[in-house]
C-alpha cells in the first residue's frame, strides 16, 4: 500500500535528510511502519527552520518537496510548481491524507486527489481562524483577506463533511462534526510507548520547582503565572520557575519578573529541544500551563508521561484530557489568585501529588503515537479506506 501525506509543516533539508517537527515526524514514522511506501509532500526549505529538527528515519519514506513558503500570498506565486509536485506525490497512491489547516493549498490538494481518483482522509490539527489572521497583513488588503478566510472556512468544512476526518482535540471535533462522515478525535503527540515512565513518581524533597514550556506570547498567560508566583511568595510558599521557550512577549515577561521582585526565582531558559524539555520535566515538581485558549497542547501529555503533575487552565481541548482532581488540576484562565491556590494545594498534599503523577502516566499511555496510529488505521479500515495489513 502507498500512502501520501500532505502538510505545510516546517520542513527543511540538511544534506540528504529532510527534518521535520518532532510530533509530526513521529506521526509520519508510525504510519510508515504500517504501509509499503509513504510519500510525504510539503514545502521544504533549504535553510534551518526553528522547531524542526527531527530526521525521518524509516527507509520507506519518500519526500516530494514543494517550493517553500510561509504565507499564502507566497504559495500563490509558486502555484504551478506546487501543483506539479502534488501530482507527482499522488501518482500511484492508494490513499492520501491532507492535514488542515493548509490555507489555499488544502482545497487545491484535496480537489487534485479527488480528480485522480485517490481516496482522501483529513486530519485537522488547528483552527484556521487563529492560524491565518488578516491582521498579519497591511490594512488596505485586510477586508479582502478576511473574505478569503471566510471562504476558506466554508470550503474546508465542505471537505470535512464529505470524508473521514480526524481532529486534534475535543474542541476541534465539536466544531467540525455534523457531516455525512464522522469527525474522530485523535491526539497527535510526540510520545511513544518508550517515553512512558513505569508508574508515577514520588514527590521530590526540597523547594518546589515549577515549569512552563511553550511560546512566549500573551495568550499563553505566562504573565498570570508570574503574578501567581508572586502571590505564593507573599504567602510564604517559595518556589522557583523555569520558563522554556521564546517569543515576542519575552521582553514584557522579563520586565514583569523584575517589577514583581522575582528576579532570583524565575529563569528564562530559551528554546529547548524535546530531550531538553524532558530533562527539565524530570527535575520539576509541577508543570503549570496558564493559557487563555488552546486546542490540546502536546506538552501537557509530555509532562504526564514523565509523571509530572499538571496544573492547567480549563480551555479548549484540555478538559477532554485532564479530569480535575483525578489526573490533573484545572483552573479558570486569567486568575492569578485561583492559579496560586491550585499550585499551593497540589504542592502541599503529597498524597494528591503522587496520585496525580500515577494517573497522568496512565492518561499519557492512552495517547502515544502507537495508539494514535492504531486509531487512525482502525477507523479507516472500518470505512474501507485502508487497504494495508
What does this structure look like?
α3 packs across α4 (about 105-115), α8 (about 220-235) crosses α12 (about 335-350) and α11 packs across α13. The protein has helices at about 20-30, 70-75, 80-90, 105-115, 130, 140-160, 170-175, 220-235, 250-260, 275-285, 300-305, 335-350, 350-365, 370-380, and strands at about 1-5, 10-15, 15-20, 35-45, 55, 60-65, 95-100, 120-125, 165, 185, 210-215, 240-245, 265-270, 285-290, 310-315, 330. The chain is built from 14 helices and 16 strands. It starts with a strand and ends in a 7-residue tail after the last helix. The strands form two sheets. Strands 1, 2, 3, 4, 5, 6, 7, 8, 9 and 10 form a ten-stranded mixed beta sheet that branches. It is an alpha/beta fold and about 400 residues long. It has two domains: about 1-190 and about 370-380, 3-Layer(aba) Sandwich (Rossmann fold); about 195-365, Rossmann fold, CATH 3.40.50.
Amino acid at each position: 500500500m502507498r500512502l501520501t501525506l500532505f502538510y505545510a509543516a516546517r520542513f527543511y533539508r540538511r544534506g540528504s535528510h529532510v527534518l521535520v517537527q518532532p510530533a509530526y515526524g513521529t506521526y509520519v514514522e508510525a504510519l510508515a511502519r504500517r504501509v509499503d511506501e509513504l510519500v510525504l509532500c510539503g514545502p521544504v526549505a533549504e535553510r534551518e527552520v526553528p522547531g524542526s529538527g527531527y530526521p525521518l528515519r524509516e527507509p520507506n519514506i519518500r519526500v516530494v518537496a514543494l517550493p517553500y513558503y510561509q504565507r499564502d500570498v507566497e504559495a500563490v506565486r509558486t502555484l504551478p510548481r506546487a501543483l506539479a509536485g502534488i501530482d507527482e506525490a499522488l501518482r500511484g497512491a492508494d490513499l492520501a491524507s491532507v492535514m488542515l489547516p493548509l490555507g489555499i493549498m488544502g482545497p487545491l490538494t484535496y480537489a487534485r486527489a479527488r480528480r485522480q481518483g485517490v481516496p482522501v482522509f483529513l486530519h485537522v490539527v488547528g483552527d484556521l481562524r487563529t492560524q491565518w489572521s488578516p491582521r498579519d497583513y497591511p490594512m488596505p488588503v485586510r477586508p479582502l483577506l478576511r473574505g478569503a478566510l471566510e471562504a476558506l472556512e466554508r470550503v474546508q468544512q465542505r471537505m470535512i463533511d464529505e470524508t473521514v476526518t480526524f481532529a486534534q482535540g475535543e474542541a476541534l471535533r465539536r466544531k467540525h462534526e455534523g457531516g455525512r462522515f464522522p469527525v474522530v478525535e485523535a491526539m497527535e503527540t510526540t510520545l511513544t510507548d518508550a517515553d512512558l515512565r513505569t508508574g508515577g513518581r514520588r514527590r521530590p524533597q526540597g523547594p518546589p520547582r515549577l515549569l512552563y514550556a511553550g511560546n512566549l506570547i500573551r495568550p499563553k498567560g505566562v504573565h498570570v503565572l508570574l503574578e501567581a508566583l508572586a502571590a505564593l511568595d507573599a504567602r510564604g510558599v517559595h518556589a522557583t520557575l523555569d520558563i522554556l521557550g521564546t517569543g515576542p512577549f519575552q521582553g514584557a515577561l522579563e520586565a514583569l519578573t523584575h517589577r514583581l521582585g522575582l528576579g532570583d526565582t524565575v529563569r528564562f531558559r530559551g528554546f529547548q529541544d524535546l530531550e531538553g524539555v524532558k530533562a527539565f520535566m524530570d527535575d520539576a515538581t509541577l508543570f503549570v500551563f496558564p493559557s487563555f485558549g488552546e486546542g490540546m497542547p502536546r506538552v501537557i501529555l509530555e509532562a504526564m508521561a514523565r509523571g509530572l503533575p499538571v496544573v492547567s487552565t480549563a480551555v479548549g481541548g484540555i478538559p477532554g484530557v485532564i479530569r480535575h482532581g483525578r489526573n490533573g488540576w484545572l483552573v479558570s484562565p486569567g486568575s492569578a489568585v485561583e492559579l496560586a491556590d491550585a499550585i499551593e494545594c497540589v504542592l502541599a498534599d503529597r498524597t494528591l501529588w503522587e496520585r496525580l503523577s500515577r494517573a497522568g502516566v496512565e492518561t499519557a499511555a492512552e495517547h502515544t503515537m502507537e495508539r494514535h496510529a492504531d486509531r487512525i488505521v482502525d477507523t479507516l479500515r472500518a470505512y474501507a479506506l485502508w487497504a494495508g495489513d
